[in-house]
Amino acid sequence: MRRALVMLIAVTALVSAALVGQRPAPAANVTEVLIGSVLPLTGNFASLGQQYLWAAQTAEDIVNNDYADLQVPLGPGKGFPGLGGVPIKFIVRDDQSRGEQARTIVEQLISVNKVHWINGEGTSGTTSIIQPVVESAGIPLSCHPCASPTLTEKGLKWFWRTGPHDKVMVASVFSFLKEWRDHGGPNDLKTVALFTCDNLFCQDNRKVAADLAPKAGFQVVLDLTTKTGATTLASEVQRLQAANADVLFFVQYTAETTVFQNDAKRAGFMPKVIATSNGAYSDETWLQAQKKTNAGAGWLGRDPTAIDLVHQRASWKKVNDIYKKYSRGQNMGELAMREITGLLWMADVINRAKSVEPAALAKAARETNMSPDQLIIDYKGIKFDDSNQNTLATGVVTQIGWDGEKHTLWPWDLATKAGFKPVFPNPSWQERDSKPKPAS
Amino acid sequence: MTELAQAIVNGLQMGFLYALVAVGLTIIWGLMEMINFAHGEFLMLGMFGAWGLSASLGLDPLLAILPLGLVMYGFGVLVYRALMRRVQGGDPFTQIFATIGLLFLLQNAVVAGFTSDYRFVGDSILVRLSGAKLTVLGITFGVPLLAAAGLALLLFLALYLFIERTEFGLALQATSEDREAAMLVGIRPTHMFAVAWGLGAALVAIAGAILVNFFAVYPQVGLQFTVLAYAIVALGGFGSILGTLLAALVVGVIQSVTVVYLPPAFKDAFVFASYLLIGLFRPQGLFGRF
């Protein structure tokens, strides 16, 4: 028995030594900080992935070059001062929007490339697949635009998120709808229909909305889930029309949103309020396309930032100029803003840790207390709770106006600053057709 | 009752568009017994072409049908001569992987050239008509979709007459039925195969030029239609042009009617269930020949 115990201790010591031996090299030997970036650059979510890629290129540019007057973390100076000025390097891999591919890539990034941090995957579903791999490897993982609340509710030690999750953001929408009547809004909005796609992100939104709607005084009269990749939504529109809800809570990606808009126009369907959460509403290309048709005017939705006010920040403008070098001239959308904010926070953590050793990185991450003036986005700052969720990441509610731009509706203090008169009720299709188009 | 009738009408209109998307697959299979997994990418190229001509030259997607059809016909012939002819006599898996390779090559080439952004045709005849409706016995017809469905039906009928009533079409059919006998009467099968690939590519690109009025354009757009096209071709009977039309209408109606009464998750499940059901009792499909 005693001999067995000694053997067990010896084996444990050997295994521990071997594991310690596999840890990344200490700061003294670091010549560059390696960030493994697994992204959906092709496949269904490629339009998201390319924004994250441009965000990574922007962050790499900011950290590695000297932007003396850029007031964001690691803006002034080259490289990481805390690590003797070494540069950051993103090792980007495409998972083709496939979860299992992402898992394999992450294993390679950790074991072959010896990265110090994994960032990705940009979608909640695939991120939930790679979480256990990174957790067992014991290095930090972050996904800043991932909005599924469950990602930080699993008790994981190594996962971090600076962006708000859907409980916060969907709550913003229902808080707005509930409080609107006391701020001059309509008092006859009583019913809501939920119309969502079928993946983790959409279904999390649906669950949160189904929970919050009755608490905000709304009766859910229809709850429809559709498959991603629909070629027609005409019958779904028929059912929504029959349900005749005052508010349509709509969570669909860009392609399906376009199909919906065509089918809704054909059927003459337009509820009093369309409230969205991410999906097409966060897609710059969809937003720009609405300017040619007025089809998006009046749509409201949650955003992580007051996008009409944030443009006034000097740091936003400078970061946007850098981003446009990589995005073929496209402005940062809110997804890119969330990602860049998170990547610059990550750079700040590495710099403060003065090490790429995982425990030091985790300690520095936990100790984060970043003020809002260091951010390009409207969070109240960055500070984490025990689940590694940023408690200061907030949500706002915006609405697309007749000018095709988003305007802040909630919270009320920001809405006052924005000075925008809400579009209500949602204009009919005829009114949309007859009004001048911002892009024509 | 009106609800059901509306759903059937909606499904039929979509069915005509699906038929035009799927028929290219049928032609290639019917002649060569080869499945083109890059079929959706040909559709995507047609959509990108129509969007590009609209954005750069202001050419309406409906007017782009002719130039796009010609260019994509040439592209289909090129694909056959440069790639498929070389693998035609080989293992079926070689053929499958050749078209899968083509799928990724085309999709990623477009990603590299145009990024994965969504693109939209903001101004076209059908987009301008998007609010126009006809109402007959309480059933609403959106004018743009009705026009698109009518155009798809016309093109389909033209193709049918071409295959059934012209000497060239009969030569295609002869090659399909007995390659060696066709050679004996002077028909060159490789020429017919090239034509089949050209026709397949042209037809699906034309479908793309019509669909671009209703759907966002992006490099992965082909997939959602290709999956349906496979089901349609299998349901109608591999190689049967009329079977493809009928099956496409059935698929459109099943999709549409299912959602009126059941959760939308069943929409595609019922499409594929109908295929399985047909497979049990008529494995060659509705109009296929074994």
Structural description of this entry:
The complex is a heterodimer of chains A (440) and B (290). Chain A is of the alpha/beta class. In chain A, helix 2 links the parallel strand 1 (33-39) and strand 2. Helices cover 43% and strands 14% of the residues of chain A. Chain A has a 7-stranded mixed sheet with strand order 7-6-8-9-10-11-12, with helices on both faces. In chain A, strands 2-1-3-4-5 form a 5-stranded parallel sheet, sandwiched between helices. With 290 residues, chain B is mainly α. Chain B has helices at residues 2-32, 39-57, 65-87, 92-114, 125-128, 143-165, 167-177, 179-184, 189-211, 222-236, 241-261, 266-281, and strands at residues 133-136, 139-142. In chain B, strands 1-2 form a two-stranded antiparallel sheet. In chain B, a hairpin with a 2-residue loop joins strand 1 (133-136) and strand 2. Chain B is globular, with a radius of gyration of 19 Å. Classes of the chains: A alpha/beta (440), B mainly alpha (290).
